[in-house]
Write a structure and sequence with these properties.
Blueprint (H helix, E strand, L loop, with lengths): L1 E10 L9 E7 L11 E4 L6 E4 L3 H4 L7 E3 L1 H9 L6 E5 L10 H12 L4 E5 L17 E4 L10 H4 L2 H10 L1 E8 L4 H10 L4 E5 L4 H18 L2 E2 L3 H6 L6
Parallel strand pairs: 2-6, 6-7, 7-8, 8-9, 9-10, 10-11
Antiparallel strand pairs: 1-2, 1-5, 3-4
Helix pairs in contact: 2-3
Length: 241
C-alpha cells in the first residue's frame, strides 16, 4: 500500500506536458526538505510553522493526515474520472514507493488500459529498471534540486539514479530557478545529459511574476525550454489544483 496525501484532476501546470488534462496522485514522504524555497505552512497537529517546498504536506507527513491506498483503490481513482487523463504520480518523492507491489500493479494496469503514467521525481532515488521493468514505460519529469533549495549537493544529486532514469525511460529535466543557475545546470548535464525545462521559483502569483521574465530570458540566452506554472497563474497558491 502507498501513502496518499491528496488526489485530484486538473491540468498539468509544469514542464514538457503543460496544459494536459491530468489525474494527480500525490504520495507522502520525501528524502529532501528544501527549506530554501521558503514556503510556510502551519502544522495541523502541533500548530508550529513548517518551512519547505510548496508540497510540504507530502514531505513532513507526520504533521498532516494521509491515507493508505491499495491497488484497487488506486485503480478506482482512475475509473472515477469522466475523461482519460494523464496519470501523474507526484509527491514528495514518489520513487520512494517504487518497490511497493500495489504501485507496481497499478502502473501495469494503467499501461494495459492505454494510460500514460508520469512520475515527478527529484532524481535522487535509484531504480533498478531491469528488476522493475514496468517503469520503463513511464515518463519522468526529473526536478533535480539546485542550491536554491537549501539542500547540500551530496543529498540532491545522485548520478547513478539520474543515469538509470535517462537510460531506461522517457525523461526530461525540470529545474526550479531564479535565472542565474547556468553553472549548476551544466554541472548536472555533464553527469547526465537530457532535455531541459527551466521553471521560475514561484509559490504564488507575486513570486512567479517577479521571477518569470528573468527565467524566460535565461532560457532564450542559453537554449533551454521555459516552463511556466499554469496552476499558479490560474489559482494562485490554492491547493488541490
Amino acid at each position: 500500500m502507498v501513502s496518499v496525501v491528496e488526489h485530484f484532476t486538473s491540468i498539468q501546470g509544469e514542464g514538457k506536458f503543460s496544459g494536459r488534462y491530468s489525474l494527480f496522485i500525490r504520495l507522502g514522504g520525501c528524502n529532501l526538505s528544501c527549506k530554501g524555497f521558503g514556503v510556510k505552512t502551519r502544522s495541523l497537529k502541533t500548530g508550529e510553522i513548517l518551512v519547505g517546498c510548496d508540497t510540504i504536506k507530502a514531505v513532513q507527513t507526520s504533521h498532516f493526515e494521509h491515507s493508505k491506498f491499495d491497488y484497487k483503490t488506486l485503480v478506482n481513482l482512475v475509473k472515477e474520472t469522466e475523461f482519460k487523463p494523464l496519470i501523474v504520480i507526484t509527491g514528495g518523492e514518489p520513487l520512494l514507493w517504487h518497490k511497493d507491489e500495489d504501485l507496481i500493479k497499478f502502473a501495469q494496469w494503467c499501461f494495459e488500459q492505454d494510460y500514460e503514467v508520469h512520475f515527478e521525481t527529484n532524481g535522487t532515488v535509484f531504480v533498478d529498471f531491469d528488476k522493475f521493468e514496468v517503469y520503463k514505460k513511464s515518463k519522468f519529469a526529473v526536478s533535480v534540486k539546485l542550491s536554491i533549495s537549501g539542500e547540500p549537493k551530496s543529498k540532491r544529486i545522485n548520478q547513478k539514479a539520474l543515469q538509470a532514469i535517462f537510460a531506461n525511460a522517457d525523461a526530461f529535466y525540470k529545474f526550479v530557478i531564479c535565472g542565474s543557475e547556468l553553472d549548476e545546470i551544466n554541472e548536472i548535464l555533464e553527469l547526465q545529459n537530457g532535455e531541459v525545462w527551466c521553471m521560475p521559483l514561484g509559490k504564488d502569483r507575486f513570486e512567479l511574476g517577479k521571477n518569470a521574465l528573468n527565467v524566460a530570458e535565461f532560457c532564450i540566452k542559453n537554449g533551454f525550454n521555459y516552463s511556466d506554472r499554469l496552476h499558479v497563474r490560474l489559482w494562485n497558491d490554492k491547493e488541490g489544483v
